[in-house]
Amino acid sequence: VHIVESGGGLVQPGGSLRLSCVVSESAFSGIVMYWYRQAPGKERELVAWIGRDGSVSYYADSVKGRCTISRDNTKQTVDLQLNDLKSEDTAKYYCKTPYDEWGQGTQVTVSS
User: What does the pLDDT read at residue 39?
Assistant: First the structure.
C-alpha cells in the first residue's frame, strides 16, 4: 500500500488548509480511514476518521467544529479540511489505514 499526503504548509492563525491523502489500496472503499497528527515532543494523536462510505465520521475534541473529513472512493482519496487554525494545530499530519499503514506525513505550521 502506498499512501501520500499533501496540502500542508505555513498558514496564519485563523487560516485554512485542505490536506489530501491518496491511497493505493485495492480495497479502499471497504476500509475506514484515519488522519493523525504529531506535534514536536508530543505523542501522535487521532484527529479524525471516516467510515467506508463517508456517512460516519469522528473528530477529536481539539478540532471538532473546525475540521471536516471527507473521502472519494473513486479517486481513493481522503481529505481533511482544517479551518480557523490555531498555533496548537501545528504538527505533522498523517493518513492511516486500519492495517497500521502510514504515509510520510505533511507538515502544517500555524504561525503569524
Answer: 96
